[in-house]
């Protein structure tokens, strides 16, 4: 039961939570991609930093997800 709750939390964090989730990261990456596609100029340093921050959050969440899968199996 607890593990299932942890899987759900990793997929979609509750509203108002600052905790990263795959759903939230997907939305953030999509927004950033839209920003990149709308511009004819190179990405700003802020956009690059945002991408790097999101990538780091994704990698951390992916590690947690893999750990949960190992516990389940």
Model description:
The chain is mainly alpha-helical. The protein has one domain (2-72). Helix content is 75%, strand content 0%. The protein is built from 3 helices and no strands. The model has no long low-confidence stretch (mean pLDDT 83).
Describe, in short, the structure shown:
With 73 residues, the chain is an all-alpha fold. Helix content is 75%, strand content 0%.
User: Gap between N and C termini, in Å?
Assistant: 14 Å
Q: Main beta sheet, described?
A: none
Tally the beta strands.
Answer: 0
Shape: elongated
Give unreliable regions as ranges: none
Structural class: mainly alpha
Number of helices: 3
Q: What value does the Rg take, in angstroms?
A: 15 Å
Work out the strand percent.
Answer: under 5%
Lay out the secondary structure.
Blueprint: H1 2-11, H2 22-38, H3 45-72
Helix pairs in contact: 1-3, 2-3
């Amino acid at each position: 039961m607890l593990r299932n709750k942890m899987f759900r939390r990793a997929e979609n964090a509750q509203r108002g939570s600052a905790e990263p989730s795959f759903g939230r990261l997907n939305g953030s990456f999509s927004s950033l991609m839209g920003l990149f596609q709308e511009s004819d100029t190179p990405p700003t340093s802020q956009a690059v930093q945002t991408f790097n921050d999101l990538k780091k959050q994704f990698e951390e969440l992916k590690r947690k997800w893999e750990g949960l899968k190992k516990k389940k199996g």
